[in-house]
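Narrative of activities, Objective 1.

The group set out to show that a structural description can be obtained from nothing but a protein's sequence at a throughput compatible with the screening campaign. Below is one input-output pair from the validation batch, recorded exactly as produced.
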Amino acid sequence: MDVDFDEGHVDIRRQLVRVGRELHHGPVKTNAGKRSLPLLGIVREALEVQRRGQEIMREQAGEHWTDTGLVFTTRSGLHIEPRNLARSFTRIVKSVNLRPDPSTRPEAHRCLAAQETGRRAT
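Output recorded for this entry:
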């Protein structure tokens, strides 16, 4: 995901994929997965907060920071292990009683479609 705050859009062109025991950047699975989305209100605010937080983590890590260019990283700048992200997401969802078994794919796709058409996801 490339975030362009100046132009106000997010470009989705690649994903983190596991090959054996290693993670690599690869293209999204389909051409339909490639998207350019407007950077709307609450999303922009959340990404700006993330960016400021990442700047603090970069300062704290000092020479141990790895600049990957990723939006969401560990405290040292590396990619977030997808399994850890899934576990954290599940824990957060359960803590606010949203769903006992979250499946983010349908919700994410519905939100993306709604954002592209300018309507609210249901």
